Amino acid sequence: MPDMLPLANTLLIVISGIALVTGRIAIARRNVAIHRASMLTATVFAVLFLVVYVVRWAMFGSTPYTGQGAARTIYFGLLIIHSIAAVVVIPFVLGALKYARREAFDEHRKRARIAFPIWLFVAVSGWVIYWMLYHA
User: Fold this and answer.
1) Which DSSP string corresponds to 61-105?
2) What is the mean pLDDT of residues 4-24?
3) Angstrom distance (rounded) from CA 24 to CA 5
4) How many Å apart are CA 93 and CA 123, to the nearest integer?
5) Domain 5-134 sits in CATH 1.20.120.80
6) If we measure between CA atoms, which residue out of 32, 25, 45 comes closest to residue 93?
């Protein structure tokens, strides 16, 4: 079971990232219903990722990175930036959701324009970190 959790966790953030991009494309095409559903899906799967990650970490600890040389430097550099971005994006996502719910779309757009690229970076860098940790 513990061996499957990193893959399951990564699949959660992959789904979140796909839904995030789908939502961005939908709103660019003025399809508000698809945008709303996609962004809520992205949020739910990001929250599920976080819950599974924290529970997995609490139960089994972290997996040490065993790579050496430049790969090690790249891995830890990416991990640090990824971790900071993951924390920084939270208030922007929560603000975007809050203003969308209130139908204050000018405020929603301001936060979403900041949140989207950071969130996408966090999702993609999470995939890369998983690959480097378990498959490189």
Assistant:
1) -PPPP---HHHHHHHHHHHHHHHHHHHHHHHHHHHHHHHHHTT-H
2) 95
3) 29
4) 14
5) yes
6) 45
For 121, which DSSP code?
H
Report which DSSP code applies to 64.
P
Burial of 116 (0-12, 13-18, 19+ CB in 10 A): buried
pLDDT of residue 1: 62
Per-residue pLDDT, averaged over 99-120, amounts to: 98
Q: Answer whether residue 136 shows pLDDT above 70.
A: yes
Tokens read off for 70 = 């430049």
Asked whether residue 2 carries a pLDDT value surpassing 80, the answer given is no
Locate the domains of the chain by residue range: 5-134
Q: What single-letter amino acid sits at 5?
A: L
Length of the chain: 136
* Beta carbons of 22 and 43 less than 8 angstroms apart: no
Whether the pLDDT of residue 98 is over 70: the answer is yes
Contact 122, 82 (CB under 8 A): yes
Kindly state the percentage of the chain with pLDDT values over 90: 94
- The encoded tokens of residue 84 equal 């900071």
